[in-house]
Amino acid sequence: MSAAGLRDCQAWRDEGLQLSTSSNEACKLYDALITQYVKWRNDETLGGFEGCISAMQAADPNFVMGHVISTGLELGATTSSTRLNEQLAFAVKRTVELANSQDITPRERLHVKAMELFSHGNFPKACEVWEDILVDHPTDLLALKFAHDGYFYMGAQIPMRDSVARVLPHWKPHMPLSSYLKGLYSFGLLETRFYDKAEKVAMEGLALTPDDAWSVHSIAHVYEMKAEVDKGLKFMQGREKDWQVSDILASHNYWHWALYFIEKGQYEAALQIYDSQVFRRVKVTGSMLDTVDASSMLYRLEMEGVCVKDRWREMLQVTQPHTDDHVTLFNDLHFLMVSLGNKGNGTSQRLLEGLQELAKEPGDNQQHQMAATLGVPMCKAMIEYDQGNYSRAVDLLYPLRYDMVGIGGSDAQRDVFNQLLIHAAMKSDSKRHHKLGRCLLVERDAARPNSPLTDRLMQRALALHD
């Protein structure tokens, strides 16, 4: 989309989404930001995220929704915590103060409220407020996307699906960015196991917008969850030129591609993607999505017996500065993978103790509320596994199997913890755990038939001869 097609004050009013500013320039830049957010892309023709944010603030420094989107995007990236980052905490405070000093619309007021709740870690309440907005304004794409991300961080799979389903009838094909709702809906469908429908909806999205990286990503998940590995490899390769341009999601899509290779036991091919795409991008962006993917990939390879020692050392430089953030449990668990990969550096203990401390008085922070029952025991299980106490790791992880969804992320991302439990069960010195490991593999095979990874593990489990 060129700057010419961006919506000014009147265009937003015509759509029933009035913005409280008299600056057409600010309105257009707000549109440019939403466009890039939905496309997962820094679009240089629009000035990229950074360029748009500074130009928008220059056009109208007091534009409340301008502050909502720029601060909201930073919060949603989960790269820093308002507890530790004074600048971010100030940005939230400033937005609230601006809103209180102006006569803005009720919709905008709700946006400010949701952003503030999210900044305190109160993800459920923030999502409730975004849903309130969508009841009256189903075409408010910012509310829809922020809610989608909020649900993702909570592992709230059904709300993530239904949130999009509810607004779909209000979106007409001529509306800007309407085709991208297909990818959003598809992702909710696949996370609630409607794989065939998810694939169909995402393919419809790609027929309308071939470079919709989120729809591509949704289909990558479908093939991952169904263990249709060759189909996945062919699909990712065939469309690489289309989705590669979405710089914010490209690394994650490459990660999916690498997972197919790990599934097949082709570790060198997976490492090549790690080195040439995933880690290379992490170093440049420091993005959390890229960081957790890189961490998880090394952890999976290590469980498969691949030596990744030097790569752990490089990753620690990326994750260590975030040890005290504790924005999401999902991030924490991935930082822990890296610190454990770098034996004996004290970071693992510091991360665990910091989380235990926050769990004592979590306040409204939903992630800290779950730390005691979910985050801390999962961290401890990983530490026990690392120290060779496999039966202890099983005892900690097994009771949490059906609660782990609460750490957020996708089924594909969380699968690393299912694999950890199976490996721990097989390495345990308890014969009962060996039996449990086989049970878990049978269950895994029922959910994802013909998985080469499951077959490999089953061979190992059967060799235990109990």
Automatic annotation (TrEMBL):
<keyword id="KW-0677">Repeat</keyword>
<keyword id="KW-0802">TPR repeat</keyword>
<protein>
    <recommendedName>
        <fullName>Tetratricopeptide repeat protein 38</fullName>
    </recommendedName>
</protein>
<dbReference type="InterPro" id="IPR033891">
    <property type="entry name" value="TTC38"/>
</dbReference>
<comment type="similarity">
    <text>Belongs to the TTC38 family.</text>
</comment>
<dbReference type="InterPro" id="IPR011990">
    <property type="entry name" value="TPR-like_helical_dom_sf"/>
</dbReference>
